[in-house]
Amino acid sequence: MYMREYFCGQYFKCQSDAKSLAVIPAVHAGSGQKSYSIQIITGNGAWNADFPCGEMNKSGEILTVGESSFSKSGARISVKTPEVWAEGELFWGRLEPPKYDIMGPFCFVPFMECRHSVYSMKHSVNGKVSVNGEEFIFEDGTGYIEGDRGRSFPKKYLWTQYCFDRGSVMLSAADIPLLGRSFTGVIGFVLLDGKEYRIATYLGARLIKLGSREISVLQGDRYLAVKMPEAAPGELRAPCRGKMSRTVRENLLCSVYYCFRKGGETLFEAQAQNASFEYEYPR
Asked: 134 with 42: CB under 8 angstroms?
């Protein structure tokens, strides 16, 4: 019986002033096999727990993988393997989704290699999770939720995200194969004082600079620049033709410079110390 190659995962990030924690439940199918996993990422490392077919269930808005569960209101984490022991509970405040699909009109294009979603640009987080003895306590922390689905992660891409007092920012650039050709697509947003500034190729955004640790984009009178100094990235598993067989580089907790201007006026500028940055672009 033929089984198509695919993956689908959700990325739950929790951020405090000093620590960050990300949890990624996913389903993946490749080479005729289907399985589930939960990746747990901290500023000190990343761990993966695999679950065989049958240990995942979706009932309404609740996703259960093994003994862990995820929903629009929070997450119950219970992962016990020789490599990682994670236990705890987290509660989300009101989610703040973007005004419309982050992919814009590309959400209607069939056969795309990877589709990206943003479920909440920023929300509050409360709760506690212990990961291999290290406690992550969130008291009015901030959260961010996104997801990916398709066959494979892009061959080359860059992604960054950061929550701050006045809002949140996310920016991604990726090599997108389509109809036998490829192009570099950009999607992102700056949420500032309750207003969403969307930046995307389908809105006319063009790349000014793109490298392994920096990107700058111009869209009309909007300009967004991001740069990460030299850092030691952690390793994260990623899908390739459905199977979680690829390793990518991510810094969950690192220093990143952001500058957002509109009409020549700087609306947001920060040297964040607890931002996230993932890159697969050559130097």
From this structure: yes
Chain centre distance of CA 201: 19
Contacts of residue 218, Cβ cutoff 8 Å, sequence gap at least 6: 205, 206, 208
- 101 close to 153: Cβ distance less than 8 angstroms: no
Residues in the chain: 283
Q: What is the biggest distance separating any 2 CA atoms in the chain, rounded to whole angstroms?
A: 59
Question: Strand, coil or helix: what is 37?
Answer: strand
- At 103, list the tokens: 């992919």
- Residue 245 DSSP one-character state: E
Show the tokens assigned to 63: 């996703």
Cβ-Cβ contacts under 8 Å for 248 (sequence gap 6 or more): 153, 235, 236, 237, 238, 278, 280
SS3 201: helix
Please state the pTM of the whole predicted model: 0.92
For the chain (283 residues), the mean pLDDT of every run of 10, in chain order, is: 71 93 88 82 91 63 87 96 96 97 90 90 98 96 94 86 97 85 92 98 96 92 91 61 61 94 97 90 59
CA distance 234 to 43: 8
Rounded to 5 degrees, φ, ψ at 5 are -85, 125
Across the strands, what pairs with 175? Answer: 184
Phi then psi for residue 203, to 5 deg, are -110, 10
The one-letter amino acid code at 170 reads: M
Closest CA to 48 of 22, 69, 70, 15: 22
Q: Which residues contact 160 (CB under 8 A, 6 or more apart)?
A: 169, 170, 171, 172, 215, 226, 228, 256, 275, 276, 277, 278
